[in-house]
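cron nightly-structures :: item 1 of 1
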Amino acid sequence: MRSRKALLLPFILVLTAGTSRRQALTVATANDNRKPAGILRDGVLAISLDATTATWHPDGDSLPGLNVEAFAESGKAPSAPGPLIRVLQGTTIRARITNRLPGDTLTVLFPGKIGGAGKTGNDSLVLAPGEGGELVMRAVRPGNYAYRAYGRTAMDKSFRIRGLLGGAIVVDSGPRTNDRVMVLLATSDRMTSTGTPDRTREVLGINGRSWPHTERLKAQVGDTLRWRIINLSPSVHPMHLHGVYYTVEDFDGPNITPARAARGRLVVTERMTPFTTMTMSWVPERAGNWLFHCHFQDHAMPHRALGEANVSASSRTHHADHAQTGMGGIVMGIEATARGATVRSHEGKPRRLIRLVAMKDIGLPDSLMSFRFVPEENGRGLPQARQGTSPPLDLIRGQPVSIRVVNQLGEPLSVHWHGIELESYFDGVAGFSGIGARLAPLIAPGDSFNVFITPPRSGTFLYHSHVAEPRHHRAGLIGVLIVRDAPLSDTAAEHVFLLKSSRGSGDDDAREINGEANPDTIVVRAGKTYRFRIANLSVGTPNATVNLTTRGSGVPPTGLDTTLVNWRPLAKDGADLPLSKRTMIPATQVVSIGETYDFEIAPSARGMMWLEVFAPARRVVTVRVPLRVE
């Protein structure tokens, strides 16, 4: 890589600064990342980028926008995200960048990995206001990358990006495939009241739009869809696909472990840390409408002030078209149409009947509001859960089941069957899930809705409310759904751990396990093998780290943790891991929102262990379960 700088004429800077104060800012166009920028000639892509200020309209051009920093291809309007750089392997990229922001020096980063094996870190330019420079690199390593820029403010140094100053880079190994590039965006906006800044809100989107204004993707049943996802934000996004698994073909970015870089993983939710990239593929198996979204609750809701309570009046609002009015941010909708395919029929088999009653525990203050699902079968109650949480549901693979969801909450309800491969109409997104004009409704107070499921595979899944999610999830309308090959003969041989946010706290961290802030001691036997099913449906802990340790203090170590025991990974999101991945490893795992993991443990000696949830951002253990080995 080579770099050189050139100072723009001073009068250009003065003219730009003077006119920007008097005239309205240029509107940043939404970039769907279909058309590459620059000019390709004789194996060299030349592109010229200007860092400038623009108005971004994530909610459509007819609604008010916000002023942000963004890149523009020279001579063209700025875009959100910045112009796509896409080249064939072996192409030389010659990028000229000019800082047209008055008053701040920019650091521009391009990933060094593009240059091939042994290349690490970033290649950079430091550009004073009005200054330009050039980066030259040969695209040796195929993959997905991001370029970005940030200034010298404290926030810039922390976030490593200013506004929307960034874009995607794709290096193809061969002729371009029929794929899509999707860039995840996040920035902050100072809201005003009576003309005075008073609050900050987080504004998020995909390819320049926020749901429900994001692009609607079209597909046919049986199509193979291939998407390149670039997280061009300082936030963590656990990306969840409704109704079907997807395959992680490639995962890259800063601080990636070998396990996360492994290709061919089947998931329904994948945690994308800041500035990571992913290539994913999936095949719609049934006709209908499906969602792909960030499962961090705040990132899939309409824009709101940062720090606004999740139990605010706005989060209590219910509309029949919840998908359009109750969701926002990083959400993409996909419509899959039939291609002569039919949904597998199980009408010849007897159908198991379960009644799932959503109820409210009365006599509690709003600060300790408790909702829960109570299952019944053949007129008798199934195993119950304590206040503020719901019990696991046990199903059998291949056995048809009818679940009648009965709403006794006194407010509307919708339920999503998370990770289960099922018919679209039952997916639980009111006003969106469905086929054609037949869309899933909200379940009105006192009403019910029948869900028909025939689980095609065994594993650990989830079920949860899909309306007023932060409030409902904190109150307890979440549970683990377990599909087995046969009824469990030894109930003591497995344990379920559901991470959730507390009812009595505004803290979004996972501070309860199975509804308990101080869980009771679990007794296990030395020499016996156990299955641990771990799931996270907390409101806002995308980096919850679960450890199984012999450390009794509850204080996390400052260095290498030598107190971890070993466990064997078995499954992720209900999909069995290949045998090559089922090896004993130290018992630590990040379990993001909407993920499930299965592990096998076999304690060999008597003593005490603790299953603990560690919040990395705060460096505290938020909740732990004692396990006594006898």
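cron nightly-structures :: done
The chain has four domains: 2-176, 216-337, 346-409+433-487, 489-630.
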